[in-house]
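A favour, since you know our structure tokens better than I do. Could you add the entry underneath, on a fresh line?
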Amino acid sequence: MYDRFLADPDSVSPSWREFFADYQRSTVPTVATSVVHAPPPRAIVDIDEEATPLRGAAARIVTNMNASLAVPTATSVRTVSARLLEINRIALNESLARASGAKVSFTHFIAFAIVKGLGEVSA
């Protein structure tokens, strides 16, 4: 949107024009900028001729890690009351204790929320 503002300030709403009036672009490159516009950085590395090349699982991990640098990432943040999570976990654990003896942790709640959120995105 900032690029649109720079090209034509009237192309954005008045509130955005006010925001961008004294806005300074960050000097830290964003993921989208580095992935889409900038070539991957090249480091100068001294190669040890006596080093043993990685093979098997270790080599595959390196390949996958390098490939992952080109995958764009996104972050979503939600604020949830920790006390509310705790109360719900206690209530669920009490119910489960009577039925099966199983227990749930905070991780179970977070994983459930992630799966539920992914289902809403794909729908």
User: Anything to note?
Assistant: Residues 1-37+58-71 form one domain.
